[in-house]
Design a protein that fits this description.
By secondary structure, this protein is an all-alpha fold. Among the domains are: 75 residues, no CATH class; 134 residues, Helix Hairpins (Orthogonal Bundle), CATH 1.10.287.70. The chain is built from 13 helices and no strands. The longest helix is centred in the N-terminal third of the chain and has 49 residues.
């Protein structure tokens, strides 16, 4: 029995996995080439210093190494030569739980008691889940805000060009204006705005860290990215000295910058993921089976409706909501391709038509409730789950061309 051709979801998944593996290999090669010589040189200098110290002060190397191991254990417990702020007073503990639930995890403070470690497991389970939900809700609201602002700019541009009546006001009359029907903000414009905001926020935060912590500006930018992206290496950690000038104000500013930075970078990452998905769809389109006309015809007929490619928006045409419902489900098409069970049936997340998606974001931009009746099988997951579903429902480039 001949196997069914690879469907688009699996093809995109395998292509992304291959690209990630290649990306990881390339990154490992670059970092190894950049950092390995420095590491070897530092190790050589340290061995030379260790032997010189042992010879000058007449201390055996085993005793000296034992002392250094004790010092490393003290560093792991939070002991430093210079005076540092208390790690487990209330401000320090609050800083710690913030890094836990946001998954930053600097590692400069860790619980050492058994009770503390057990409580961290339970605390982090619900805290991380709640914070991820908060990030998704923040993403939804920032996209709605950007849609509202970009809608106003679009209307102003139409007025200047004479395509919109000067006395036009937002309301039910909007449906009669052809230039605004189905308008949705571009994912690339949203990407640009979020990118500018993230860069501005990082530059301002870096200026503060350079002035207060004494880091150079490049280190401050590096710290901002590592922290805002929740990587959290812990080689640089802010607000760790025993005292600062205007300490209360600095701690408040540090909290605000980290909070806003994490939310902004999370939103930016999700927008970038949409662009990556578009590139994957474009690559799959280029590499689809061309040697077999039958497979090529089948893949064209059964292509996923939310699979868009660069330039797809130019091929869009108006389709009524009534007639579109007849072709909204791809379950039958999947069954014809040989699949026993389709992911569409498992999630019941049938693709929403372009006209309905346009209406949803248009209403969002104008503050109207999105009461849309969709004649499909739906359950709690029918609109999708998570940040990707938010982007799919609210940005123009995530809708499929017909």
């Amino acid at each position: 029995r001949r196997l069914a051709p690879l469907n688009e979801d699996n093809g995109r998944f395998l292509l992304l996995a291959a690209l990630i593996a290649a990306y990881l290999s390339a990154g490992a090669t670059v970092f190894s080439a950049l950092e390995s010589p420095s590491e070897a040189e530092a190790q050589l200098r340290w061995n030379r210093t260790l032997h010189n110290f042992s010879r000058i002060f007449n201390i055996s190397l085993p005793e000296l190494r034992a002392f250094l191991r004790s010092y490393e254990a003290a560093m792991a417990a939070g002991i430093r030569v210079d005076a540092l702020r208390p790690r487990w007073d209330f401000p320090g503990a609050f800083y710690f739980v913030g890094t836990v639930v946001s998954t930053i995890g600097f590692g400069m403070t860790t619980p050492v008691t058994v009770a503390g470690k057990v409580f961290l497991i339970i605390y982090g389970l619900f805290g991380c889940a709640g914070t991820i939900l908060f990030f998704n809700l923040f993403l939804e609201r920032i996209i709605s805000l950007l849609a509202f602002i970009m809608k106003a700019c679009h209307e102003r541009q139409l007025r200047r060009s004479g395509l919109l009546p000067p006395n036009f006001r937002r309301g039910p009359a909007m449906s009669g204006v052809g230039s605004l029907v189905g308008w949705k903000p571009s994912v690339y414009h949203v990407l640009l705005i979020l990118g500018i905001f993230a860069i501005t926020l990082s530059c301002c935060a870096s200026a503060m860290y350079t002035a207060v912590e004494g880091w150079n500006y490049v280190d401050s930018l590096y710290y901002c990215f590592v922290t805002f992206s929740t990587i959290g290496f812990g080689d640089l950690v802010s607000s760790q000295n025993a005292a600062y000038q205007n300490q209360g104000l600095y701690r408040f500013g540090n909290f605000v910058f980290i909070f806003m930075g994490v939310c902004c970078i999370y939103s930016l990452f999700n927008v970038i993921s949409i662009v990556i998905k578009q590139v994957l769809n474009w690559v799959l389109k280029k590499f689809e089976c061309r040697c077999c006309p039958k497979c090529h015809k089948s893949s064209t007929r059964l292509s996923r409706r939310n699979a868009i490619t660069p330039g797809a928006r130019l091929r869009r045409h108006n389709i009524s909501v009534d007639t579109d419902g007849q072709y909204d489900s791809d379950t039958e098409g999947r069954r014809l391709s040989g699949e026993m069970i389709s992911m569409r049936e498992l999630t019941a997340s049938n693709k929403v038509s372009l006209a309905i998606l346009q209406k949803q974001l248009s209403e969002t931009a104008n503050g109207y409730p999105r009461n849309v009746c969709i004649n499909t099988r739906q359950n709690g997951f029918s609109a999708g789950v998570g940040a990707l579903a938010i982007m799919n429902n609210r940005l123009a480039e995530t809708s499929d061309s017909r």
